[in-house]
Design a protein that fits this description.
Layout (H helix, E strand, L loop, with lengths): L5 E7 L2 E8 L7 E6 L12 H12 L2 E6 L15 H17 L5 E6 L1 H10 L5 E7 L18 E6 L7 H4 L8 E6 L10 H16 L1
Length: 209
């Protein structure tokens, strides 16, 4: 299991963002950044799925960082609803990559965090792979995902009213992606964290081999 998270500060322009670093027991074999759900609906880095992702990644050998977007928790600034949060991810990812410059990097997000993270990934050359949990394409336009050129894992549940995989698939025709879905999960994954952890672990280990 991963050690208790260590407090960390990330910087986006003049703003300081609150973050936590989860380290594996052994020296890390990769690094990751995890973005959280929409702040307007109570999303923060303390979300249960964000925690599951970080703990899963640390167990798989990654140094995993979760952080609060601007205006959330102790992070400075004001929430923008998406545009500025993309920049939060870009600059936070660059800082984590600098910390672990010789290691493969994974960019991940849940719900709103997946939508924002996938946009940021279009301008980042270094991620080895991307992980999107419950991308909320029923709420936000995801057509840009067709431009993704990194291996992508999408994890979703058939009972998710905010993530419609059938509508997302046409945009994935030219994308190297894997889909892990379960009929048992809704958008919030309560009671289905084990499925999520298993899918993410398999994907990470496959990309590290």
């Amino acid at each position: 299991m991963s050690a208790q998270c260590q407090a960390l500060s990330l910087y986006v322009d003049s703003l300081q963002l609150e973050a936590c670093l989860h380290l594996p027991t052994d020296p890390p074999c990769g690094a990751a950044l995890v973005s959280h759900p929409h702040p307007a609906y109570g999303g923060s880095m303390s979300n249960n799925i964000v925690l599951t992702l970080c703990e899963t990644m640390a167990d798989a050998g990654l140094a995993a960082v979760r952080f609060n977007f601007r205006g959330v928790g102790d992070s400075q600034g004001t929430s923008s609803g998406g545009e500025e949060e993309v920049e939060d991810v870009r600059q936070a990812a660059q800082q984590i990559k600098t910390m672990y410059s010789d290691l493969p990097f994974f960019l991940s997000g849940y719900s709103f965090g997946a939508w924002v993270g996938l946009q940021a990934a279009l301008d980042l050359p270094f991620p080895k792979a991307l992980i999107a949990v419950s991308p909320p394409n029923a709420m936000f336009d995801h057509s840009f995902i067709s431009q993704t050129r990194k291996p992508l894992l999408i994890v979703a549940g058939d009972r998710d009213e905010y993530c419609n995989i059938d509508r997302l698939l046409p945009s994935l025709e030219d994308v190297s992606y894997e889909l892990a879905h379960t009929p048992a999960a809704d958008h919030f994954w309560y009671g289905q964290e084990a499925f999520l952890a298993s899918a993410v672990t398999s994907f990470i280990k496959n990309k590290l081999d």
